[in-house]
Design brief:
By secondary structure, the chain is mainly alpha-helical. The protein contains twelve helices and three strands. A hairpin with a 3-residue loop joins strand 2 and strand 3. Helix 1 packs across helix 8 and helix 9 packs parallel to helix 11. Bound molecules: zinc ion (ZN).
Length: about 270
């Protein structure tokens, strides 16, 4: 996602604003409407830089899993939207306001429906836990946010700054572990075998890490081994085994979806 990052950097460089105060811990004062407004702008900038993978069968498949997870999430009434980005980077991420992304490279490197559901559950978890909203608040402080939405100052420029700041902020280790926990919770509640998420941690453990903050699953922390042990302990506590017939691991369609992605992706 290098091109997108270049945009973000440019946005930051041209901003005349500086953060004057710290707003940590005040995230609840970012309203849902504000979160959606920020997410909407970030989404527009994102898809202007990185093409969407436009296949109705793939999009419907991903979207259906997403809606099943949202129904079991902490914010079932927030409208979530799920997108497939056509990029060679193996990645999944969420931005404030209910926008969730997986990449074609991610799908190509997965083997099961449960793996995809687990990763998407993790991203829905970031939204349910307000991690994006918290990052925005921390970066900018309440006074600047108020300025945007009360019409003070250069609203568009401030909004650009908010989006840029957010996208340059990696989630903390605690937030990642919380999203893992929520991912296991939502996936299993939706009927997916949560061991799929552990499978994916095993896969990324074999890849070299990167510090790119928007490379959610490839960020340098927490270590995949820690995520595997934490999630495994949680799933064992739930009493779910890998071959538990009550939880779906694979379906007939996943490999077909993956084939469509492999055939149609420009990367
Ligand atoms: Zn994450």
């Amino acid at each position: 996602m290098k091109r997108f990052k270049q945009f973000v950097t440019a946005t930051l460089a041209t901003s005349v604003l500086a953060t004057g105060c710290e707003g940590g811990g005040l995230f609840s004062s970012v309203s849902e409407q504000q979160e959606i407004q920020i997410g909407s702008q970030a989404h527009a900038e994102l898809i202007a830089e990185t093409p969407l993978f436009q296949d109705p069968t793939v999009n419907a498949y991903v979207g259906q899993i997403g809606l099943e997870l949202v129904a079991k999430s902490g914010r079932p009434n927030l409208r979530h939207q799920f997108f497939v980005l056509d990029t060679a980077e193996i990645n999944a991420f969420a931005i404030p306001g209910g926008y969730v992304y997986v990449t074609t490279a991610l799908i190509k490197n997965m083997s099961t429906r449960a793996e995809l559901a687990g990763v998407m559950g993790h991203e829905v978890g970031h939204i349910s836990a307000y991690h994006g909203a918290e990052a925005i608040q921390t970066n900018l402080g309440l006074s600047i946010l108020s300025g945007i939405f009360l019409g003070e100052g250069e609203a568009a420029e401030v909004l650009n700054f908010v989006v840029g700041s957010y996208l340059n902020t990696a989630h903390s280790q605690d937030q990642e572990l919380e999203a893992d926990e929520l991912g296991v919770q939502y996936a299993s509640a939706a009927g997916y075998n949560p061991w799929g998420l552990v499978d994916f941690f095993g896969f990324i453990g074999d890849l070299s890490g990167t510090s790119d903050p928007i490379s959610d699953f490839l960020s340098s922390h927490p270590a995949p081994s820690e995520r595997i042990s934490e999630s495994s302990a949680q799933i064992q506590k739930l009493g779910i085994t890998k071959d538990d017939p009550k939880y779906e691991y694979q379906d007939n369609q996943f490999l077909q979806i993956r084939d469509i992605v492999i055939a149609g992706s420009a990367n």
